[in-house]
Structures are given as C-alpha cells and as structure tokens.
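Entry:
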Amino acid sequence: MTGPLTMVARALRAEWTKLRSVRSSGLALLAMAALTLFLGLLSATLSDSAVNQGVLTVDQFHFVHQPMTGDGTVTVRVSAQADSGAWAKAGIMVKASAVSGAPYVALMVTPDHGVLLQGNATTELRRPDARGDRWLRLTRSGQAFTGAESADGSAWHDVGTVTVAELPAEARAGLFVGSPPYVHFIEMPHGEYRKYDPTIGEATFDHISVGTATPDRSAWQDTDVTPKDPQEAPPPLDSGLPNLELLPGGSTWTGDTSVTVKGGGDIGRAGLGGIDLADFDRVKASLFGVQLGIIGAIALGALAITSEYRTRTIGTTFAVQPRRGLVLAAKAVVLGGVVFLTGLVIGVVCFVVTQPLQEQGGFGPPVYAEPALTDPVVIRAVAGAAGYLALIALFSLAVGTVIRRTAGAVTALLTLLVVIPVIVAGSSETADGWLRQFTPVAGTSILQSVMFPPGSNDTVTGPWTGFAVLCGYTAAALAAAFWLLRKRDA
C-alpha cells in the first residue's frame, strides 16, 4: 500500500521532472532573469540626481543662551517635551554665536528617537532608547565635547564625544528648541509637490547649570536663530532643503530655575537628525526590473499546466495520479520553489550591480543612504522580490488551470499585470495609486525600503500590506483552480 507521504513525494518528483525536462520552462526562467536584470540596469544607468549638490544643512531654532568661556559643563533636565513631531528637538547647545550657520555642538532629546549628540551638522551619535524625561550634560574640554544622559541625574550614560575645531573659546551656551516642518506631498498639474508646513515645539527645562553654579537669570538672552532672508517657498527638490520662514519662539521663566521654551525649525543636515530629502528608493529601484521580469514568471506559470492540455498529456497525468488536487498542489510547490530561488539569485545580482551605477548618477550619501545587502530592510526587499515573482507564477498557474489555453491565459495575464499598469501609470496618478493598492500589482510594495511623506504616490501602501493583497488574489485563484480541476473533465 502506498502511504500519503509516498504519494506526495512521487507527485513532487513527477512535477519536478516535467518542469526541468520541458525546454520552454528553461526559456521562461531565462527570460525572467534577463528582463529583470535588463530593466534594472537600464533604470540605474538613465537615472540621475543633483540633490547632493543643493542646500543640505539647516540651522533654525529658538536659542536661550548666555556667554561661556573656555572649558566647562552645561547640565539641565528636560522635564517635559511636546510631541510636535517625531524628530522635534530640545536640549543644550554650545555655539560660536547666536547666528545661523555658526559652528555648534548640541545634545538633545526627541520624542521618538532618543538622545542625539550632534557636532556642527557633520557628526551625530545616538542613544535611541533614552526617551522620556532626561537629564543632559555637555562637557567641553578644549575642542572636544562629551555628551551624557541620565534618567535620574545620578546614573549617567555617555552618548559619545565629538570634536569641533571651529568653536572659539568664547562661545554661547544654553537651551534650544526646534520642531521640523510637517512634510507632505500635494498633487499639481505637472506632478507632486513637496510642501513644508512649519510647526512649533515646546519643552520645559529645570536644574539648569552652566559651569559649577546655577546661572543668573538676567544673563540669558533669547534669539530666534535663522538666516536673515528666508525664502517664501521651498525650492525645487534638486535645490536641497528649504529655508522656511521661522515661526517666532520665546521663553517663559518660573522663578530662576525653570523655563519653558517654544521654537520652530530644525538643526542638522540631510541624513542627520531625521532630516530627509530623498525622493528615490535605491533598493526598490535596484529591483525595479521584476516588474518586467514577471513576463517570464507568467509564461512559466501558465505553461506548467496549459502545455499538458495542449499536448493532451494531462489525461495521462491524472491516470497516474487520480487525485487532481494533489497534482495541482505539487505543481504549485515545485513551480513556486523554483521561481523563488531563481528570483532570489536575480535579486541579489541586480542589487549588487546597480548600486555603483546609482552612485555615479548622484544617488549617494548624504541625501541617499548607502544600503547594504545585510540590512534587514534590504533582505526583506530582495527576498520579497523573489516572493513576488513566485506568487505571480502561482497566480498564472491558477489562471492557466482555469482557462486551459496557453495563448488565452498568457494574454489575459499580460493584460492584467503588465499592459494595464503601464497605461494607467502614464495617464493618472490617482488611478495608478488605486491599482497599486487593490489589485495584484500591490505586491510590488514589498520592494519598498523608504516610506515617503504623506501624499506621495511612491508610497500608497505598506510593504507587507501590498504583499498580502497579492497573496489573497493568488490564494483565491488557486482555490478556484482546485475546485474547477476536480469538477470538470480532463
């Protein structure tokens, strides 16, 4: 008697033998690989950016400060901070002068990203888990500045040390608050427009000391640090960061030891402190070719079943294995496994060969971070590309089972998955966004490594959400194929 496991093993072996012995299967896999690599290389070669040549730094915030000469320590507790944004900043600073663009060192807390130590918009060190009410301590020794943070003012943890050679011995030291603008996209007649809406942050400071004593209240000065001539509107993206009109800040003292500070703006440069100018997803772009490579996956998936109907060998298959559901399941397992493994190799090759080409086109640090193949988000995207191709092949297998004709199945699949998306993408951003949310094309979202601001048509759904949509369509199609295969004649 043949056991269930033996039957499954025989079915899998039979389908594997069919797949590797049919010439069209190899050609379809080769087409999938070639088309994916070709489009990925073409995209990387033709794309270019000038963002890294634009304005990359910003130095706007409200500063409450007093003179500080030579070495010393500034200590404060940030007892409260308004959550005006994930990267709102409040902390202590030593700055050459209260002028935008002057050299500085800042130690700050943020609502969602812990404590940051920033040196002159060139260096940043982080303690991402240090959140909530925080004591901050910034100690100067020559041109070296050491930042530390504490939850209780007793047990201190070093954030790190930065060196800013440009800071003079006579500097300004004190408290600052900034709140980055809310960034979102709005649709314009000629595409999307990145819009910046100013925000105001607020923080309360106490236990303030500069040097060894609590400073004299009368020594503090308030300054809205900002360039002299802010632009009225953001520049084009390739001009870099906008110089927004700063919302007025201020300070309110409670006695001589506690102060509440309000301020807008931001500090740092692209790539530091959550400042992001990227309009290009390097990982997704490197895997862009899978959107053409699915042609090979479609052909392979449809042929896996329609070729047997065309040659009339399907009857022999069912005679050897009467359990038709097992036959289709075995085809799905073998097909999905082969396409996934092939897609994984293709994805790694595409990622490796396109990264240098992207950097040559201007898509490099600091605006565009350099991704590594070992990054979890890159692993997810590369494996997701392979999974996307495998699911398309399985979806095609199901459609081929339902239609039973190679030409009809392939034509229907190419129309649905390739032709319509290309036409819609070139005619309507709204329709394109809908298509990438609610149809099998949503599976391409698994390639995303960057979540762009609200309103961007580049991010219409989350990576796993879109992938789940494709999984749902594939499962439904396979269920229909199983039902029809068992109900009708061979």
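DSSP finds ten helices and 18 strands in the chain.
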